[in-house]
């Protein structure tokens, strides 16, 4: 199994907040600011979910692509995870190989080679990008579903389930470029 240690903010306490169920709204927010837009998707985004650590955001929708966004200050940590497992050339088990979509391998994680990593890191910061919370491009893109994605779910160790109108659920991991399993 994959055992990951959180080293982005060692020793810091993570504070989790949950909206109260006793107040159904409408909610009033003060000092709302437009900080960042995700322009990668074509068509509506039907689902957005944060990872349990709060530093990754999965977005999915009509364009059938699952995108994983990373906070700017956590980029290097998650890029190192991808690089580590990529260099080990971990491959699926034979039973999983038949389930791995060739399409998902060819069009999966961005920035899997060094040249792309440098380009990703050296992007000039515009005024909008300097105040943005997430990196301007997704850490990973996963393709394989043949219809709209409706929901995603994270595990604590960065596995992701995506469900689609194509009546399938796919299992992914941020360290891997391909679908691990299709249900």
From TrEMBL:
WD repeat intervals: 38-69, 142-175
Keyword field: Repeat, WD repeat
PROSITE patterns, alphabetized: WD_REPEATS_2 (PS50082), WD_REPEATS_REGION (PS50294)
Family annotation (SMART domains): WD40
InterPro entries recorded: WD40/YVTN_repeat-like_dom_sf, WD40_repeat_dom_sf, WD40_rpt, WDR44/Dgr2
Keyword Methyltransferase recorded: no
PANTHER family, sorted: WD REPEAT DOMAIN 44 (PTHR14221), WD REPEAT-CONTAINING PROTEIN 44 (PTHR14221:SF0)
Name of this chain's protein: WD repeat-containing protein 44
Organism: Saprinus sp. CSR024
């Amino acid at each position: 199994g994959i055992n990951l240690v959180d080293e982005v903010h060692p020793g810091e306490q993570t504070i989790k907040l949950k909206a109260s169920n006793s107040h159904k709204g409408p909610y009033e927010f003060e000092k709302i600011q437009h900080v960042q837009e995700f322009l990668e998707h074509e068509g509506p985004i039907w689902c957005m979910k944060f990872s349990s650590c709060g530093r990754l955001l999965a977005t999915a929708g009509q364009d059938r692509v699952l995108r994983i966004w990373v906070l700017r200050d956590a980029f290097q940590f998650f890029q190192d995870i991808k690089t580590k497992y990529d260099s080990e050339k971990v491959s699926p088990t034979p039973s999983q190989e038949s389930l791995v979509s060739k399409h998902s391998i060819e069009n999966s994680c961005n920035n899997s080679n060094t040249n792309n990593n440098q380009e990703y890191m050296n992007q000039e910061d515009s005024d909008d990008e300097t105040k943005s919370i997430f990196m301007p491009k997704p850490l990973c893109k996963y393709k394989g579903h043949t219809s709209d994605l409706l929901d995603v779910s994270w595990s604590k160790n960065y596995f992701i389930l995506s469900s689609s109108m194509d009546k399938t659920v796919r299992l992914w991991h941020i360290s891997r470029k391909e679908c691990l399993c299709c249900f």
